[in-house]
Design goal:
247 residues, mainly beta, 2 domains, 4-stranded mixed beta sheet, 3-stranded mixed beta sheet
Length: 247
Amino acid sequence: MATLVSPGVAVSVIDESFYGSAGAGTVPLIIVASSQDKADGTDSTATAGYTTSATAIKPHLITSQRELLQQYGKPYFKSVSGTVQQGYETNEYGLLAAYSYLGAANRAYIMRADVNTSQLEPSSTEPTSAPPNGAWWWDLGNTTFGLFEYKQVSVESSAWVAQTVTIPTATATDITGGNVPEAAFGSNGDYALVPYTLAGVPLTAPSYYKKDAGAWATVESGNSGITAVWVRPHYDPPAAPNVGDVW
C-alpha cells in the first residue's frame, strides 16, 4: 500500500489483485544436426564434446549459452564472399534456435542427430568414406577397359581389333528402365557398357551391349552376330578364334 500526502489531501493506493503462482516450466528437447567433431565454440582448441559420433542420439541437459558453445560449437552458416547462404543444407538452424532459447531460459535438452553435415559439402577429390555394399566408383581418368572383336582385316588375314566402348549417362535419354541403352543411343556396330541404373544406382554386375539392326543386345554368344565371347587377361589372347568372336 502506498500513501501520498500533500497539503490537505491524503491518497491511499491499495492493490487488491491476486493471481496463481507460476508453475514449473517445461524443459524443451531440441534436436539438431551439425558437422561432426566441431571445435569448442569458446575459442578453445579442444573438440566440442557432444559433436562426436559416440555422443550422438543422446539427450544432454544444457544450462547456458556458454555450455552450449562448449559442447556443440558455434552455429555454422554457409557464407560465400561474406554473404550467408540462406537455406543451405549445412546451415545449423537447430543449434541457433537452442542458443537463442538459452538466452531467455537456463535449461534445455539438446540431442544431436548421428549425421555429419560437413560431408554434404562439394569436393573435387574422389570419395574416401566407406561405400555401401555393392557400390562402384568408376575412375574413368585412370581406368582402362574395353574389348576386342576378331575381324577380317584383309583378304588373307584376320586380327583382334580394339573397339571403343561408350558409357551412357544415367538419364532416360540414354538408358531404359531395364538398364539397357536406349535404341536412339549410338550406332549399329557400337559397344556400350552400362554400370548403373537409370536412377544412377551402381549395378553389382555391369553389362556390355552391342547395337545391331537398331537394337541393343548383351554381348554373348549368338547375339548380334557374335560367335563366342572370351574373358581373358590382356596378355593371353584366345587361341584359334573365329571372325565375330569378342574378347
